[in-house]
Specification:
Blueprint lengths: L8 H10 L1 E5 L7 H10 L4 E5 L5 H11 L4 E5 L4 H10 L3 E3 L5 H10 L3 E2 L1 E2 L2 H9 L4 E4 L2 H4 L1 H9 L8 E4 L8 H5 L7 E3 L5 H5 L3 H19 L4
Parallel strand pairs: 1-2, 1-9, 2-3, 3-4, 4-5, 6-7, 7-8
Helix pairs in contact: 2-11, 3-4, 4-5
Length: 224
């Protein structure tokens, strides 16, 4: 597997071991701590916290500071300033919905592991040109799902390209993705969706997390 300047091998291995990232939108920073507790109780130690709310950075900083066992990534990073801000807040890595060379360059400059979003072979080629070998495949199911990803990733396999599919995947469809060597991990927005967080239904989130991790371990042969 190829080392790249934007996603160290040690981080790749850790995310692969997780198998699934809980993709979360936190509207109230007071929900950050119980949410992290609920996910950890269910066995999920990695999240993508999206920058879709005014207080997202506060939540990111809180979780990164209070839960060292949680691998906290920032999602929806759309600008150079946001890349710097999430790094300062304690993000271990960042992802974006698209491939913006300026944001990638800033991430490289400040040492922030970064996975840009792709949905076409051209996107993949551009991302690799900018030093990225880990990419977010988004929106996954709307673009054609696993069959489509299998086709567009083939020309780049020899370069060590790996993907984090996100968008439309759920508990019943995750196994087929996890079986692929080019899938580093899945983005799981169903595990702790916005409405469940809003209702503070932490037990449901723990249950969803536990079921997702159980599937990761079963498919990838990981001992609990």
């Amino acid at each position: 597997m190829h080392e790249t300047r934007l996603f160290p091998e040690s981080l790749r291995q850790r995310i692969h071991q997780c198998g699934v990232l809980a993709v979360v939108v936190i509207e109230d920073p007071r929900d950050a701590e119980p949410l992290a507790d609920a996910l950890l109780e269910g066995g999920i130690h990695s999240i993508e916290l999206t920058l879709r709310t005014p207080t997202a950075l506060d939540s990111l900083k809180l979780i990164a500071g209070r839960f060292p066992e949680m691998l906290v990534g920032a999602g929806t990073v759309l600008s150079q300033d946001q890349a710097s801000a999430v790094r300062d807040a304690g993000a271990a890595f960042a992802v974006s919905p698209g491939t913006n060379p300026r944001v990638i360059a800033r991430a490289a400059q400040i040492g922030l592991p970064f996975a840009p979003g792709i949905s076409t072979p051209t996107d993949i080629e551009l991302a690799i040109q900018e030093g990225c070998a880990v990419m977010k495949f988004f929106p996954c199911e709307a673009c054609g799902g696993l069959k489509y990803l299998q086709q567009i990733q083939t020309p780049f396999e020899h370069l060590g390209a790996q993907f984090i599919p996100l968008g439309g995947i759920h508990a019943e469809t995750m196994d087929a993705y996890l079986q692929q060597d080019f899938v580093l991990a899945l983005g799981g927005s169903w595990i702790a969706n916005k409405e469940t967080i809003r209702k503070k239904d932490w037990s449901i989130i723990t249950q969803n997390a536990r079921e997702a991790i159980s599937r990761v371990h079963a498919v990838r042969g990981i001992s609990s």
